[in-house]
Amino acid sequence: MTCGIVGLGLMGGSFGLAMRGYFKEIIGIDHNEKHKKDALSLGLVDKVGSFEDLSNVDVIILAIPIRGIISSLKTLSKMNLKENCTIIDFGSTKESIINECPANIRKNLVASHPMAGTEYSGPMAAIADLYENKIMVVCNLEESGETQRKRAIEIFEKLKMRVKYMEAKEHDRHAAFISHMPHIVSFSIANAVLKQEDKEHIVTLAAGGFRDMSRLAKSNAHMWGDIFKENKSNLLDSIEAFKSELKKAKEMIEKEEWDKLKTWMETGNELHKIM
Ligand SMILES: NC(=O)c1ccc[n+]([C@@H]2O[C@H](COP(=O)([O-])OP(=O)(O)OC[C@H]3O[C@@H](n4cnc5c(N)ncnc54)[C@H](O)[C@@H]3O)[C@@H](O)[C@H]2O)c1
Ligand SMILES: O=C(O)C(=O)C[C@]1(C(=O)O)C=C[C@H](O)C=C1
């Protein structure tokens, strides 16, 4: 079996590293020349190629920003793909990808979202065990072909991932709260500190707490811009929920309702018991 990976960054590169030996050959495709060279020298893929090479592979991984995934699907739908070709996308939102996937290749697509990653991007960020013991959400699986379902699940098992099935609508709602809103909050924290006049002095005090809370603010703005745009309505709801809690905390502090504030914090302590 052969594989083509479109996007040789954190997600595509890590996939290549983890799947060496499983595929007879892995071909890497990327619009960034340096990323192609880096991917080769890091051994993320066997060779680099172009989109046309995808006509001859058995598995295609789309690991590029969401709008790029959608336009790749449109291009792939006009190509002569292998009959049972399995296309797996790693996009962080699922509804628009599924809705905009051309009908003639819908059975080829297994719409997936690995709940794994870091704040870094590009081939240098690739990690061989990134996917191990992590959740892979697979959406609207019944719309994928039987061969494609089986192949994708086998690949996720090989990655040592735990598969969770969900409807795309539900996935996008959940992802807004568990991933997209925390990124917005982290960017907000970073911008709030950067706006302080004595920011350099403030950050000299940064220890674990600030580093944890601001880590996500290092993430790639292009990729996250796409995610926020695609999940706008759910993201707005999650920001509203967060704002309402922040407002509650602010009011309790203003009114010096310390016991109430303590109870509110103790409620927050409960979260990790269910994680
Ligand atoms: N970073 C994460 O934590 C994470 C986690 C889960 C899913 N995802 C999703 O995975 C996808 C890839 O994310 P990443 O973190 O690997 O990004 P990345 O920036 O590390 O890598 C993307 C790579 O794709 C290339 N690229 C971008 N657009 C392209 C195009 N149209 N054609 C060819 N090459 C193109 C870039 O040059 C880059 O090498 C995104 O859809 C993202 O939403 C990311
Ligand atoms: O751990 C991180 O740094 C991540 O950002 C990974 C993370 C997340 O947990 O929000 C980011 C985007 C996803 O689509 C899935 C996972």
TrEMBL record:
Domain of life per record: Bacteria
Coiled-coil boundaries: 232-259
SUPFAM superfamilies membership: 6-phosphogluconate dehydrogenase C-terminal domain-like, NAD(P)-binding Rossmann-fold domains
One GO-annotated biological process of the protein: tyrosine biosynthetic process
Enzymatic class: oxidoreductase
Annotated Prephenate/arogenate dehydrogenase domain residues: 1-275
Keywords in alphabetical order: Amino-acid biosynthesis, Aromatic amino acid biosynthesis, Coiled coil, NAD, Oxidoreductase, Tyrosine biosynthesis
Assigned protein family: Belongs to the prephenate/arogenate dehydrogenase family.
Record's protein name: prephenate dehydrogenase
Organism from which the protein derives: Nautilia profundicola (strain ATCC BAA-1463 / DSM 18972 / AmH)
